[in-house]
Amino acid sequence: MNRPRLAIAGLTACSGCQLTLLNCEEELPVIAGSFDLAYFPMARSGGDSQGPFDVAIVEGAVSTPGDLALLFRLRNASRVLVAFGTCALFGGVAAMNNGTHQRENLLREVYGEAGRDFESFPPAPFKNFVAVDFAITGCPPEKPDLLALLGALLAGTLPPAPSYPVCTECRSRENLCLLLERGELCLGPIIQGGCNARCPATGVPCEGCRGPVREANVAQQLELLLERGFDRREIERRMSRFTPEWDYGKRR
Amino acid sequence: MGSVVEINPFTRVEGHGNLKVYLDGSRVERVELCLSESPRLFEALLVGRSFAEVPQIICRICSLCSTVHKVTALLALENAFGTAVSRVTQLTRELILNGGQIQSHSLHLFCLLLPDLLDLQGVTDLARQAPDLLKSGLAIKRVGNLIQETAGGRSSTR
Questions:
Q1: What is the per-residue pLDDT across B103-147, written as a single tens digit (0 to 9) for each?
Q2: pTM confidence score
Q3: Which residues, in sequence order, are CB contacts of A167 under 8 Å at separation 6+?
């Protein structure tokens, strides 16, 4: 059988999504044998950056001309482009102040006058620039989601993409509801599940790292939090930590 | 006769960069190191946010060592408030940090560095030509992640 040719790369990011692959310790030897990891700078030298590739799995937000060039190159060279992780899908942490601050002011705050020398624009998701064929969310993504993708690719297809909120798994784990029973600013109802409610299960409110669930009732969540006495600015600040753009009037 | 050796991009390392070595015959004339990491501006992103948000945001600086970033952010906050945490909390953090060290160092050693020592290109070559060594390295790495996940809730301690 032909081994699918993969490109695995990162744009503006922390390499955490790519690390998810290397964290598949038990499966990695099989993965390395089943795919041609043709371009994977994080884990191999001397790769082929030109392609063509069967699949490009790319993490990170787009925030520099270099990011954009690499994204276009991988898009053009690949049959399937996978947006890998929250930054690629929604902008992620680096984009949290997109809606409230000018990029040049943020650059100046960190680098002073030298900030002018950076070619840097507000971090944006892939969908603003190219067509995306499949997406895996998460900061970082969950291993089973990546393994499901790789397994499906070997079978010549893509896995299903279910969309349900964090609360679904949280309730089935019988966790205490941090939002209703403890009055905490938990984003579970509007955030994409699949993480098995990792954070609420340890008593930490959902911080929204997997981005919006497909049919998020954002307006209802907003009302619920306002009723519980949270300040509108605080709510928006928390919601924008991984996803800067929300439609606060969206009901489903 | 001058020549240039270029390494672009750096491989088997977390982060982005490239290197140019200018040669005059066999003598190195000049070296240009360029770190092309896109700025994410964490220092500026934190301004105006609640102190409670800081560790959750800061741990996203680097995935390979996110545990260290998170604990460091907690220590900075405790220092700012002049508070001390219990012995149990200190020990739990130490345990998570040790798990993180095991994960991060075994990743570096067995996945990123080992190919150089064996004159190979990367993990695929390792899987084919040094499968037992790779598997034993990954077993150590897995223990590091297991410690982090058991003590901290998730392997990247986020």
A1: 999 999 999 999 999 999 999 999 999 999 999 999 999 999 999
A2: 0.94
A3: A188, A189, A193, A197
The alpha-carbon gap from A160 to the nearest alpha carbon of chain B, in Å, equals: 25
The answer to whether residues B47 and B62 belong to one domain is yes
Of A23, A32, A118, the CB nearest to B145: A23
Do B11 and B64 lie in a common domain? Answer: no
Q: What is the pLDDT of residue B158?
A: 47
The answer to whether the Cβ–Cβ distance between A16 and B66 falls below 8 Å is yes
Evaluate if residue A34 carries a pLDDT over 90.
yes
* Nearest CB to A44 within list B11, B15, B61: B11
The number of domains in chain B is 2
The DSSP bridge partners found for residue A192 are A165
Q: Could you give all domains of chain A from N- to C-terminal order, each with its CATH number?
A: 5-154 (3.40.50.700), 166-239 (no CATH)
Q: Residue B32's beta-bridge partner residues?
A: B20
ipTM of this model? 0.91
Q: Of B15, B25, B16, give the one whose Cα is nearest residue B5.
A: B25
| CA dihedral over A142, B143, B125, B18, signed as positive or negative | positive
Domain that holds residue B6: 2-35
